[in-house]
Amino acid sequence: MPLLLALTGLVLAELSAERVQQLYGVQALRVYRDWQQLVLQLRRDSNEDNRVRDVNQFFNQKLKYVEDAELWRQADYWATPLESMAKGAGDCEDFALAKYFTLRELGVAPQKLRMIYVRARIGGPASPITQAHMVLAYYSTPTAEPLVLDNLISSIKPASQRGDLQPVFSFNADGIWVGAGAAPNSSVDRLTRWRQLIDKMKAEGFIN
C-alpha cells in the first residue's frame, strides 16, 4: 500500500524491502517494517492525540540516545529517519526529525508541528548546567499551548510543565521562527543541515 503525502513540495514514498536492505541492511529493514506497520495502524485511528502519543513512544522505544561524535564521528549530523532506523540510535535532532516526518506522513498539518532548539537544564529547572537540545512541539490549534515530544522523557507534557527547557528558535518545512510571532521570520533553507537532510532523503528515495 503506497504511503504518499504532499509535504511542502516533498512527497514521502514507500520504499521496497529490497531497497531499504540494500541501503542500510537488515537492522534498518526490521525497524522500517515496524514503522510501516505503525503508520498503517494509525491511519485507521483518526484521533490525532493517539497518533502523536504513539509516534513519540515508537521512536523513544526503537532508538537509543547516542551522541553524533560517537555514532557518526562528526560534531553535528542530522540523520534521515532511515539512517536512524539503521543505527537503532540517534541524538535529539534525529528523534525529533523522525517524529516530525512520521506525523506529517500521518496527515498532521504542517502548522501544528515545529522542531524547537532549546537550552535544556540538566537535572531540572533549577540546575545551572545547560546543553543544546532539540524537541518536537505539537500545537493542536494555532493558539494552543504546545505539547513537547522529547526523547529525554517518555511522557508528553505541555510546554508550561517543562521549565527545564528554554526555547531558542523553532522551525519546520515552512520556515524559521524566532520569538512568538505567528509567521516565520525566515526561510528554513537558511538551515544548511535541513537542506542536506532533504537531499539525503531524496537520494534514499524516501521522499520524491
Q: Could you give a short description of this structure?
A:
It comes from Vogesella margarita. This protein is an alpha+beta fold and 208 residues long.
Which of globular, elongated, flat, extended, rod-shaped describes the shape?
Answer: globular
The protein's oligomeric status is: single chain
Distance between the termini: 17 Å
SSE pattern, N- to C-terminal: EEHHHEHHEHEEEEEEH
**Runs with pLDDT <50, length 5+?**
1-9
Helix content: 25-40%
Strand content: 15-25%
Overall strand count? 10
What integer is the average pLDDT? 90
Features:
208 residues, alpha+beta, two-stranded antiparallel sheet, six-stranded antiparallel β-sheet, disordered N terminus, 38% helix, 21% strand
Verbal overview:
Helix 1 packs across helix 2 (26-43), helix 2 packs antiparallel against helix 3 (48-62) and helix 2 (26-43) packs across helix 5 (81-87). Helices cover 38% and strands 21% of the residues. The protein has 208 residues and is of the alpha+beta class.
Secondary-structure map with pairings?
Layout: E1 5-7, E2 10-12, H1 17-24, H2 26-43, H3 48-62, E3 64-65, H4 68-71, H5 81-87, E4 89-90, H6 92-105, E5 113-121, E6 130-138, E7 147-149, E8 157-158, E9 165-172, E10 175-177, H7 192-204
